[in-house]
Write a structure and sequence with these properties.
CATH superfamily of the largest domain in chain A: P-loop containing nucleotide triphosphate hydrolases
Number of domains of chain B: 1
Distance between the termini of chain A: 33 Å
Radius of gyration of chain B: 21 Å
Number of helices of chain B: 10
CATH topology of chain B: Rossmann fold
CATH class of the largest domain in chain A: Alpha Beta
Number of strands of chain B: 12
Number of strands of chain A: 13
Helix content of chain B: 25-40%
Largest interface: A-B, 44 and 43 residues
Number of domains of chain A: 2
Strand order of the largest sheet of chain B: 6-7-8-3-9-10-12-11
Structural class of chain A: alpha/beta
Order of helices and strands of chain B: EEEHEEHEHHHEHEHEEHHHEE
CATH topology of the largest domain in chain A: Rossmann fold
Number of helices of chain A: 12
Radius of gyration of chain A: 21 Å
Strand content of chain B: 15-25%
Oligomer: heterodimer
CATH superfamily of chain B: P-loop containing nucleotide triphosphate hydrolases
Strand order of the largest sheet of chain A: 7-8-9-3-10-11
Shape of chain B: globular
CATH architecture of the largest domain in chain A: 3-Layer(aba) Sandwich
Largest sheet of chain B: 8 strands, mixed
CATH architecture of chain B: 3-Layer(aba) Sandwich
Shape of chain A: globular
CATH class of chain B: Alpha Beta
Largest sheet of chain A: 6 strands, mixed
Structural class of chain B: alpha/beta
Chain lengths: ~325, ~325
């Protein structure tokens, strides 16, 4: 049985201009110990889908799904109290900005032991040994003295390590990392990604990596989900996707990378992601698609073999 | 044409830092010893981690700060020796800047037309009609439509705002544009659009770009020359192809191997950099990279290397022969 099974998840926000569909029919199945990356531009609903799973969206959001199972438990019908027992323990999430997601008023030791006290009972002090162990596990030198450090005394990379320590404190089965390295330098990014993969392998966690960086995906993930304007347009194994993208958006996204450019200019995708008020009729990608046909402008496509396109790009001949 | 637009020789910038009662003040070496020539139509990329002095260099080039030591010549005029205010004002028109965050760099209470006209009001004697014409031409050039003239910045997406910021930088017809991480806040597809626009504008107007970035794949695409900095000091410098195809300095090598590539075949064989950037207030002795360098020897801890020509590039490392 899959660890996480989401079927047809949609999230709508009530706004002054009517309903805004941020996530539109996303399916996601995840096994234990698997790394799945969700890629897409800003506004593609990557983060919102995962926040909906965590139950962290504000009251203006309307979450609907056919099925949302985690480890056999139904997250849709669960009470908020029951959900809190799972959130932070079995499912946890790392956010993009390490500096702003830690509380500046408490020492890092306080914040990590708080998680342990919340889920395992006892006082924060009784978890001191485990807190030190966690800090060592995420590679923070002189862990014992760092317990008393406040977030402003640590660099961005160190703060992200503290966040990771906090999130793996209860040995979660599923870790969601929302752009964990976007705010960090390349050398630190490499360290943090390596740490995440190491921890994922050591603890057998499943890891969902939300990112907009195709290169990070190529080097880390097993499977990729590509999202565009709230819809899931393609879902494939990482190697297949990079060698032979089937959805025109995926192909365009890969071509836009500087290393894939031929000649002086880059292969940019014209136009922008549609907003709430200018959603096109038919396929949402049709105004920017280079393979667009008349049919695409009128009828929205249905998902076929995990590709949301009327005319998916052909599969290249099988390699021997 | 053979005269470089920017000629920097051994630029230094120190900031005094108060270290407390009864303690001597320290000086923070934000930039020590950057030298380069930049010609019209060329791009110099400055790369390095945060805190390596990239932005300090940008502040020196745009005349926001004056260098502590060294010589800086912009468009043939020496600015390091307290040039008079009139010359400086003239020079500021030739050097313009585009900032990283298009959400923070545009005044939310000004309309696009006003944002773009302001440099013309301050620096030229154009009539209102001429100014408007000039602004509309520039807006069309960067891919904005005429009706955007009366809109506010919040009505635009990130990519469009960066186009506005580029238009503002170019409206005075500068010769040098300092681009401080111009695309790092943008999405991949928009990033490509903005980079293409920058390349086209450079070819059209013969601009010299100083391109500050930490994204090496972008740098590799756009740069003619690369300057790699570490803790305020240049460590490797040379033509883009030479630096990327055959990096000499261990820091450049580590930086390149840390950059992820969209290639599923290449599975992490990284040169791991342990630890983080040391504090520039208390730089390590000898070579400032030695605590993180995997090849460091005893000599590296005591002797500071200087930039020397090694083949196609200049490198500051004791071990590179």
């Amino acid at each position: 049985m899959a660890l996480l099974d989401i079927c047809n998840l949609s999230v709508e926000f009530a706004t002054a201009h009517g309903a805004l569909k941020a996530v539109d029919g996303v399916d996601l199945k995840l096994d234990e110990g698997e790394i799945v990356a969700i890629v897409g531009e800003s506004g593609s609903g990557k983060s919102v889908a995962m926040l909906a799973l965590m139950g962290l969206l504000p009251w203006t959001a309307k979450v609907t799904a056919d099925r949302m199972l985690f480890d056999g438990q139904d997250l849709l019908t669960m009470s908020a109290k029951q959900r809190r027992k799972i959130i932070g323990k079995d499912i946890s999430m790392i956010f993009q900005e390490p500096m702003t997601s830690l509380n500046p008023c408490f020492s890092v030791g306080h914040q990590i032991s708080e998680v342990l006290a919340q889920h395992f009972g006892g006082s924060r002090r009784s978890h001191k040994a485990r807190t030190i162990e966690l800090l060592q596990q995420v590679g923070i030198p002189a862990a014992e003295t760092r317990l008393k450090a406040y977030p402003h005394q640590l660099s961005g990379g160190m703060c992200q390590r503290v966040m990771i320590a906090m999130m793996i404190a209860c040995q979660p089965k599923l870790l969601i990392a929302d752009e964990p390295t976007t705010a960090l330098d390349v050398t630190i990014q490499a360290q943090i990604l390596e740490l995440l993969v190491e921890l994922q392998q050591a603890n057998g966690m499943a890891l969902v990596l939300i990112t907009h960086d195709m290169a990070v995906v190529a080097e880390t993930a097993d499977r990729v989900v590509v999202q565009y304007a709230g819809q899931q347009v393609e879902q494939r194994a990482v190697k297949d996707l990079f060698e032979n993208p089937r959805h025109p958006y995926t192909q365009a996204l890969l071509r836009a990378l500087p290393e894939h450019s031929q000649g002086e200019l880059l292969n940019a995708i014209p136009g922008v992601v549609p907003g709430q008020l200018d959603r096109p009729v038919g396929c949402l990608f049709n105004p920017r698609c280079e393979h667009v046909q008349e049919h695409c402008r009128q009828t929205p496509p249905t998902r076929n073999e995990d590709i949301l396109c009327h005319y998916p790009l052909p599969l290249a001949g099988q390699k021997p | 044409m053979n005269q470089p637009l920017i000629k920097a020789r051994d630029l230094h910038k120190y900031y005094p830092v108060k270290s407390g009662f009864l303690q001597a003040d320290k000086s923070l070496q934000a930039l020590s010893g950057a030298s380069f020539d930049l010609y019209a139509g060329q791009t110099l990329a400055v790369v390095g981690e945060s805190g390596c002095g990239k932005s300090t260099l940008a502040r020196l080039l745009t005349l926001i700060e004056t260098p502590t030591a060294g010589q800086l010549t912009l468009d043939g005029i020496d600015v390091s020796m307290a040039a008079d205010a009139a010359t400086k004002k003239q020079l500021r028109q030739t050097v313009q800047m585009v900032f990283q965050d298009p959400f923070g760099s545009l005044n939310p209470r000004q309309k696009i037309g006003d944002i773009l006209q302001e440099p013309l009001i301050i620096n030229t004697n154009m009539t209102a009609e001429q100014r408007k014409q000039e602004v509309l031409t520039m807006m069309a050039r960067v891919g904005l439509r005429d009706e955007h003239f009366h809109r506010y910045p919040h009505m635009f997406s990130g990519g469009q705002r960066q186009r506005i910021a580029i238009a503002r930088a170019l409206i005075l017809k500068p010769k040098i544009v300092v681009l401080d991480e111009p695309v790092s806040a943008l999405d991949v597809s928009i990033q490509a659009q903005v980079l293409n626009l920058l390349i086209e504008l450079q070819q059209e107007m013969g601009l010299a770009y100083v391109f500050i970035s930490h994204d090496l794949s972008v740098v590799q695409h756009i740069a003619d020359q690369v300057l790699v900095m570490y803790l305020g000091k240049p460590v490797e410098q040379g033509a883009s192809e030479a630096v990327f195809s055959n990096p000499q300095h261990p820091y450049t090598q580590a930086l390149l191997s840390a950059t992820p590539q969209a290639n599923t075949e290449r599975k992490r064989q990284r040169i791991k950099l342990i630890g983080e950037l040391p504090s520039p207030l208390d730089p390590p002795s000898g070579c400032s990279f030695h605590p993180r360098c995997q090849n460091a020897t005893a000599q590296c801890k005591t002797t500071a290397p200087v930039m020397e020509q090694r083949g196609d590039v200049s490198v500051a490392c004791l071990l590179v022969k």
